[in-house]
Amino acid sequence: MPMSMCGRCKRLYSLGSRCEPCAKARARMREKARVRPSPAERGYNAEYRRNRRIVLAGNPLCSLCNLRPAGTADHIVPLSRGGTNNLSNLRPACGPCNYSRGNRTA
Fold first, then answer.
1. CA pair distance 94, 76, nearest whole angstrom
2. Does residue 93 lie within any of the structural domains?
3. How confident is the model at residue 7 (pLDDT cuts 50, 70, 90)?
4. Minimal CA–CA distance to 1: which of 9, 17, 13?
5. What is the reported pTM?
6. Is 4 part of a structural domain of the chain?
């Protein structure tokens, strides 16, 4: 397998355009530089905050794992996929369960 020299650190590597440590460092830098819209710009408005309080008051346990206390309101159909902030589209979830779901529908 032909070996190449990394343009950043001058180490030898076999695949890609950079050695693995430099490729990971570049990926971390690109992720930090990514600009994310504010919660209000993403659709988490006053209606969401009001309905979130109602959902969390009604059921203190995570509806996904039923183990941990719910601290967030999970959108069944994500806002980015056309979901709304209505009570019927929200369910209580713990942080790990909610954040691991990402942009998937229930």
1. 14
2. yes
3. confident
4. 13
5. 0.66
6. no
